[in-house]
């Protein structure tokens, strides 16, 4: 094993079309595209994370791998320390051997799930990690934690690898997707991705004897202050185009990062009346599976990626 990919996985980075932006960047030669990511393993952190949905965290947590940079640039991103594409990426130098040793040390603590967080622009690297773990007799459950700005064909290619899809549905409003995340076409792209995930997994989830998920789909939505109509539209799509039986993770954990501290809408916390209105729509649409955060959750989910465990 090494820090550089080989064969067909490496070839995908020579003319990169991994995500819907279709940059065509030659990441092998260092001619970077939108995400400013090279051909190495751009990983910020690997640690056991216990802050996910209960069926994902389970009693021991999940081994989450946080990739750097992103194919979306949400101005309010709560992981802004690692997601900004303007930052240099010394983490690209990490070796695959070191990654695998780190993951195995976590798996040996009784954890049996590996989460890939923001993997859309690092799909060959993600597959290389899974292949290396398999070669060492490891077969964890893989969780694909994505912003949903993916190609539908990509999700089709992951059907035999990914046990659990954990996608966001951020916007059904095109103008918000462009203004806040520089993601043109997001509603059409993300809904096609969610349809494919739903085709693969359906509405039911499979749990082991400890109550930890082994297979299924959980859709996340972060409610933004001042934009509850967008939130209600996202919920309506899921209920009407997929199923009200889908497991939803409705999140109120938004907080204004330094990048949006003075923003006219995003520079404040979610109001109680806004949250209640979204919850009323959630109930009206007939959702009955999933998780709803407390309104004070913004004070509980503030990662600091300068620490070995960003959430401690």
Structural commentary:
The chain is α/β, with parallel strands linked by helices. It has a single domain (7-299), classed as TIM Barrel (Alpha-Beta Barrel). Helix content is 31%, strand content 15%. The chain has helices at residues 7-11, 54-57, 80-83, 96-107, 123-135, 152-157, 174-181, 186-201, 228-242, 272-284, and strands spanning 43-49, 62-67, 113-117, 141-146, 164-167, 206-207, 213-222, 247-251, 290-292. Strand 7, helix 9 and strand 8 form a beta-alpha-beta unit. Helix 9 runs parallel beside helix 10 (272-284). The mean pLDDT is 93.
Shape: globular
Q: Tell me, what is the CATH class?
A: Alpha Beta
**What does the radius of gyration come to?**
19 Å
Structural class label: alpha/beta
Domain count: the total is: 1
Helical residue percent band: 25-40%
Run of helices and strands:
HEHEHHEHEHEHHEEHEHE
CATH superfamily: Aldolase class I
CATH architectural designation: Alpha-Beta Barrel
CATH topology: TIM Barrel
How many strands, what sense, and barrel or not for the largest sheet?
Answer: 9 strands, mixed
* Count of runs of 4 or more consecutive helical residues: 10
Distance between the amino and carboxyl termini: 31 Å
Structure summary, number of beta strands: 9
